[in-house]
Specification:
With 341 residues, the protein is an alpha/beta fold. The chain contains 13 helices and 15 strands. It is globular. The chain binds zinc ion (2 copies).
Length: 341
């Protein structure tokens, strides 16, 4: 079989790899669609994974082989799921921090989503594989993982009806956040970005106001419009300098949700007096627990997520390198790219 294998930021090869062999408790799926995630793009461009890695985790496919002990799935089932499974019993799991479980990152699908066939290990079969509702396409179902991550992130903060929310970053994650928020009767969703292309999409995802922060200063906007500030700020762009800015436009008592990995220049300066005097908070969120997938599939099935506008490109699995290049072109309207097999 073939897979798109990482060798370098400009060197992704669609090449022959060994087709996985399953045991009695595992499942083999034929990949149908795998979404290209911001984290995949970062890993490739920053060359932070080893040569020979097959990336991809937003998969959807068809069951083509089941181990003889597998009774919950059959050949022909259309499925989607996640890649990391917690143990459910350790210290972190017992406190509900499933994504921090020491077993979490040790578990994975094999060889990765950008591959013609994928082996689904036993713990995934038990806890992290879901049948795709009939009316959803494979591409739509591949959005379950990023939607589930956003649901997980929003659970880190108490969202009240009437809240004013700022989302920093109008990429697929920021736009999914916007749609999930609008279903919760928030008063206002403001989205910022430095790209007009990205921002132009944001109204279709429920944004009330868009601000290009390359041209307009956010704090000036707040002052000029007599805006009371935001109850919640979600940072959905991997720029650590956004954190001090988020704290400054937050209402007293508000919360900043750090959704993005701040891997580059993670040290930032914030006024720590705001925690005491203004009761402002910062919360972090990482990945997704098994409990958010069903909610995500329901959100997609019920039309909460505008999949039609969100998926801007469908490309063949062999074009992963081109797909990543495309995301770097400032003049292209690129939101979600789904690789298809
Ligand atoms: Zn993802
Ligand atoms: Zn655990």
């Amino acid at each position: 079989m073939k897979a798109s294998v990482f060798y370098g930021k400009d060197d992704i090869r669609f090449e022959e790899v060994q087709k996985p062999v399953i045991n009695d408790n595992e499942i083999l799926i034929k990949l149908k669609a795998c979404g290209l995630c911001g984290t995949d793009i970062h890993k490739v461009l920053e060359e932070s994974v080893s040569k020979g890695t097959v990336l991809g985790h937003e998969f959807a496919g068809e069951v083509v082989e089941t181990g003889k002990n597998v009774s919950s799935f059959s050949i022909g089932d259309r499925v989607t799921g996640g890649i990391h499974v917690p143990c459910f019993t350790c210290d972190q799991c017992s406190r509900g921090h499933y994504t921090l479980c020491p077993e979490f990152k040790k578990t994975n699908i094999h060889p990765g989503g950008f591959s013609e066939y994928i082996k689904i290990p036993v713990e995934h079969v038990r806890h992290l594989l879901y049948k795709i509702p009939e009316e959803l396409s494979y591409s739509e179902a591949s959005l379950a993982e990023p939607v589930a991550c956003c649901i997980h992130g929003q659970k880190a903060v108490n969202i009240h009806p009437g809240d004013r929310v700022l989302i920093m970053g109008a990429g697929p994650i920021g736009l999914i956040h916007a749609q999930l928020l609008k279903k919760q009767l928030v008063k206002e969703v403001v989205i910022t970005d430095v790209s007009d292309h990205r921002l132009n999409n944001a109204h279709a995802f429920g944004a009330d106001t868009i601000i290009n922060t390359a041209e307009n200063n956010l704090r000036d906007y707040i002052q000029e419009n007599g805006h009371p500030g935001f109850d919640i700020v979600i940072i959905a762009a991997g720029v650590s300098a956004l954190l001090p800015e988020a704290m400054n436009v937050l209402k007293r008592g508000g919360t900043v949700v750090c959704f993005s990995p701040f891997t580059i220049n993670p040290d930032v300066t914030i006024d720590a007096g705001m925690f005491f005097h203004d009761e402002k908070s910062i919360v972090g969120t990482y990945s997704v627990s098994p409990y958010e997938f069903e909610e995500a599939l329901l959100a997609i099935q019920n039309g909460v997520i505008n999949t039609e506008v969100l998926i801007t490109h469908e490309m063949p699995l062999s074009d992963l390198g081109e797909a990543i290049q495309l995301t770097q072109k400032k003049n292209e309207n690129v939101l979600k790219i789904v690789l298809k097999n």
